[in-house]
Amino acid sequence: MPTYNFAVVVDDIDMEITHVIRGDDHVNNTPRQVNIFRALGAPLPLFAHVPMIVGQDGQRLSKRHGAVSVLEYRNQGFLPEAMRNYLLRLGWSHGDQEIFSTEEMIEFFDLADVNRAASAFDLDKLKWLNQHYIKEADATRLASLLADALEMRGVDTSAGPPVEQVAEALRERAQTIEELVDKSLYFYKDFESYDEGAAKKHLRPVAQDLLVDVRAQGPAPATGLALACSDSSGRSGRSDLRQGPAPSRPYPAKLHRRTLGSIARDRYLLYAE
What we know:
The protein is mainly alpha-helical. 49% of the residues lie in helices and 5% in strands. It has a two-stranded parallel sheet with strand order 1-2. The chain has a two-stranded parallel sheet with strand order 3-4. The longest helix is centred in the middle third of the chain and has 14 residues, at 123-136. The N and C termini lie far apart (67 Å).
């Protein structure tokens, strides 16, 4: 410990550190380091000790609570602005404001306003913030993030709709980029199973013409839809989906939403543009 404290002080002097902001688990080291600074005749930096971050169980945040690295959160699909916003609000507040731009963070933040009590890391709130920033993200940037994430999963997007349209259609339904990828897969990959209850409820005979329209207006895997959409005798509608004529005009979106499940709906809205 004496070697550690000496090395820390020498390093701070060499780097001309003016502010030392760290967890309150270092409070015991501060008096020792102050004495070393004075013994070396160096100016004292400003010391600030902030409460530790704990998990929902009240214990110090660690790997057993999940991801603890910023890079891990990036890989899970969290945007940098969402992480900054969340970490800022973790133990600090400015009235009831929850959403802060970078300029507001710089303007409003003051160490004197940091809470003295430990803050619990709430993943659900982080997801809520991330969803807000996904909704507000620049369309080109969001499409690029989605395209990169799809490529990482080995998904070929050339046979489906433009990634920009998919990102725009789904941006309000995903809390992370990874969730956005999960919800986008059926645009580019066929599915082998489906929810029979949902198929029975939504993919009724009245939906047949709409599904034919979806097939006619753009390339999209039809196997799963063909399996799910059958007539009352149980025969597969695959051939009709592939060969049926396209209606002369798109169906009203209101009628479409009432009669189809989310899979067919999303494809219809994209290809009908």
